[in-house]
Amino acid sequence: MSEAPIYPHADVEICPGGPMLVRNAGAIRDADGQVHRVDKPIVALCRCQKSARKPWCDGTHKLLPPEKRPQ
Amino acid sequence: MLLPEPRGALTSALFAALRTSPRTQVDVCVEPSDLDDATLALWVLHELSYRGFDDVDDAAEWDLGALAVRRRLEDDLERRMRERYAASAARPDTGDLAADLFTYIEQFEGPSLARFVQTTATRDQVLELLKWRSIYHLKEADPTAWVIPRLPVRAKAALAELQYDEYGGGNPNQLHQNLFTRGMRAVGLNEKYGRYVGEAPTEFLEMNNALSMLGLHRRLRAAALGHLAAFETTSSEPSRRIAQGLRRLELAEELAEYYDEHVTADAVHDQLAVRSICGTLVDDEPDQAEEIFFGAFVCMDMESRAAHAAFARWGVDA
Ligand code: FES
């Protein structure tokens, strides 16, 4: 019998064209130095700079043309 | 909840039979009067697997006669959905499932109820829409919960992560269904589960039937997840618009907050659904790829039909 695989898994994930997923964070400091408490096990941080709810992703990246989205 | 009012020959016969089950087995061969009648019948038969009805014995869920009717109605619904999928635009196929699925979902065009709520809808129209949508929101995430045991390891872990958030991360106050309940009460609607089924148009019930059917059949597990991916991917932006519309109409803040919550939550969920759930499922079970796109189509097609129906009722050009 083959061994059960160990799957690569990360707490932080960069999503091509979209946000960064962060797991198990206690607080996030945004670009203005403001600290946001995190009360969820997983959050999405905006990488495209266009979110109206920064530092969180609000899906706005989908309205950008593909070449303007974060890599 | 009690059984709703029948809407035709099939629901009349079926509801009468359900009330006397299990003393007498359900034995109904009546043809539905129309699609509305068929759709309500299937909605009720599926509901037996969720919370049930106060005037139907719990054992009716597995009554062979009731299952026979359900099967006929489901076969018909699935046939219609597959026909529409086959006639729709082909899906992209570059070999990168996540990118293809995002593109496919973004390219689908349908009328937007959210945009209408944001800019134009009257208070009465919004309240009516909330009643119809409550059929889904009060069991939000439940149909997809049935899929968890049917998945390989990675997709299962990822779906559990998503569902954990839908169910409030262990906090009943944060359970999404419950956030909606509070919002309904705050705007003066009756938040009782199933209260507005009787008022829901065919298309809104059918949208729920499709989701329940995908969740209840292991055979359709990948379609259920494709549906989830499309649902989550098309949620953040419309939720933002709806929250704006609710504030424009000065409807209770609790309800706007429900939609606010979905703006950021679903920006996480769509990534999980597309990449970690659908993406790994197709790695493990490559033959399921087409079904994922079928499920995504069903979600968007049903939403588009429901939007057309709502605009037609209100006499608004979509
Ligand atoms: S990355 Fe999603 S809004 Fe910026």
Plain-language structure description:
The complex is a heterodimer of chains A (71) and B (318). Chain A has a domain at 11-59. In chain A, 0% of the residues lie in helices and 24% in strands. Chain A is built from no helices and five strands. Chain A has strands spanning 12-14, 20-23, 27-29, 35-37, 42-45. A three-stranded antiparallel beta sheet of chain A has the order 1-2-5, with no helix packed on it. A two-stranded antiparallel ribbon of chain A has the order 3-4. In chain A, a hairpin with a 5-residue loop joins β1 (12-14) and β2 (20-23). Chain B has 318 residues and is an all-alpha fold. Chain B folds into two domains: 9-84, no CATH class; 92-314, Heme oxygenase-like (Heme Oxygenase, Chain A). Helix content of chain B is 66%, strand content 0%. In chain B, α12 (236-248) runs antiparallel to α13. Chain A binds chain B through residues 7, 13, 15-19, 21, 40-44, 52-53, 56-60, 62-63, and chain B through 98-99, 102, 106, 153-154, 161, 164-165, 169, 233, 235-237, 240, 263-268, 270-272, 275. The structure holds FE2/S2 (inorganic) cluster (FES).
